[in-house]
Design goal:
- With about 280 residues, this protein is of the alpha/beta class.
- Helix content is about 45%, strand content about 25%.
- The strands form two sheets. Strands 3, 4, 5, 6, 7, 8, 9, 10, 11 and 12 form a ten-stranded mixed sheet that branches. Strands 1-2 form a two-stranded antiparallel ribbon.
- The model has no long low-confidence stretch (mean pLDDT about 90).
- A hairpin with a 4-residue loop joins β1 and β2 (about 20-25).
C-alpha cells in the first residue's frame, strides 16, 4: 500500500513487478538516489549537532578491505584516536573493496581502506600505500637464486593466491590470461599472512606485495622473484563520499592513518637496506 501511495504521489511507476521479484524502474532509481542523499544529509546534520556536545564525542564507522592493515596498524591508530575522542562511537567492519564502496554510497560507513582504483564518481579516494606485486617462495625452492620468473613458469607452480573478488586477484588473473597461460591454483586464502605462512611451510608459491613481505625476506624466511612482463601494483587508499561532511574525528583519523603509513614506509626502507647489506 505504501508503494502504491508513493507511486500515486509522484505520478510514475517506480517498480516493475514480476512473479519472483520487484525491479526498480528508471524513475525508481532516480528517486532511490535522491532518498539516499536525504538520508546522508540527515546523518551529517546529526553528526554536526552532536559535535556541539564537545570534542570528546563523535561517530566514526570504518571499513577495511585489508586484513593485514587491520591487524598490524589499525589497532594503534584507534588507540590514539580514542585518547582524543574519549566517548566516541567507533565501529570497524571488513569486506571486499567493492562491498565497502557500496556501504559508503548507502551511508552505512563513513570511510574505508580499499584497493585502488575505485571507478565510482561519487567516491573520493586518497592513496596511502603503494606496493609492487612479486612472487614469493621458500628459500629451498630450486629457483630461489633467480631474480625473475616468467608467467609460464609461475603458472606451473602450485600457486597460493588471495580469494577472488579483490582488485589484486583480478589483476593477477588478467595477467595470466593476457600471457595465455592457465595458473595451477591449489589454494585461495582471504588473508595475506596465511598465504605467507603456507609458503614458509613449503606448501606452494605465493604472490604478495614486496613491501608487505620485507620482514620475511630480511629474515630469509622467504625469497621473492620479479614477475617478467608484469606491472602489477597494489595501491591501498582511503575512500569516502565525495562532497560529504568531514567531521573532526574523521579528520583526525585520516591524519593518524597518513602518519602510520609514513612510519611503515620508513620501516620498509630500513628492512631493504638490511637485505642489501646482507647480500
Amino acid at each position: 500500500m505504501q508503494i502504491r501511495q508513493l507511486e500515486d504521489e509522484v505520478g510514475l511507476q517506480l517498480f516493475t513487478r514480476t512473479p519472483r521479484r520487484v525491479i526498480l524502474t528508471e524513475a525508481g532509481e532516480h528517486l532511490l538516489e535522491r532518498a539516499r542523499r536525504i538520508m546522508r544529509e540527515h546523518d551529517d546534520a546529526l553528526a554536526e549537532i552532536a559535535e556541539i556536545a564537545g570534542a570528546e564525542h563523535g561517530r566514526l564507522r570504518i571499513g577495511s578491505a585489508s586484513a593485514m592493515f587491520a591487524t598490524a596498524q589499525l589497532p594503534n591508530i584507534l588507540e590514539k584516536l580514542k585518547e582524543k575522542f574519549l566517548h566516541a562511537e567507533i565501529t570497524v567492519s571488513s569486506g571486499t573493496s567493492q562491498t565497502l564502496v557500496e556501504k559508503i554510497l548507502h551511508g552505512n560507513i563513513d570511510v574505508a581502506f580499499v584497493s585502488l582504483p575505485v571507478e565510482t564518481a561519487n567516491i573520493l579516494t586518497e592513496l596511502l600505500f603503494s606496493d609492487e606485486i612479486v612472487a614469493i617462495a621458500h628459500p629451498s625452492h630450486s629457483l630461489s637464486k633467480n631474480k625473475f620468473i616468467s608467467a609460464a613458469a609461475l603458472a606451473g607452480e602450485q600457486l597460493i593466491l588471495g580469494e577472488k573478488g579483490g582488485n589484486t586477484r583480478r589483476m593477477i588473473d588478467d595477467f595470466f590470461a593476457a600471457a595465455g597461460v592457465k595458473p595451477n591454483v591449489v589454494m585461495e586464502l582471504s588473508r595475506q599472512e596465511a598465504i605467507n605462512k603456507m609458503v614458509e611451510n613449503q606448501m606452494g608459491v605465493g604472490i604478495a606485495g614486496a613491501k608487505t613481505v620485507a620482514k620475511e625476506l630480511s629474515e630469509k624466511r622467504l625469497v621473492s622473484w620479479l614477475i617478467e612482463s608484469a606491472e602489477i601494483k597494489w595501491d591501498l587508499g582511503l575512500a569516502r563520499l565525495r562532497g560529504g561532511y568531514l567531521s573532526p574525528i574523521e579528520k583526525e583519523f585520516v591524519n593518524l592513518c597518513k602518519a602510520s603509513f609514513k612510519e611503515r614506509e620508513r620501516e620498509v626502507r630500513n628492512q631493504k637496506s638490511e637485505i642489501r647489506s646482507q647480500n
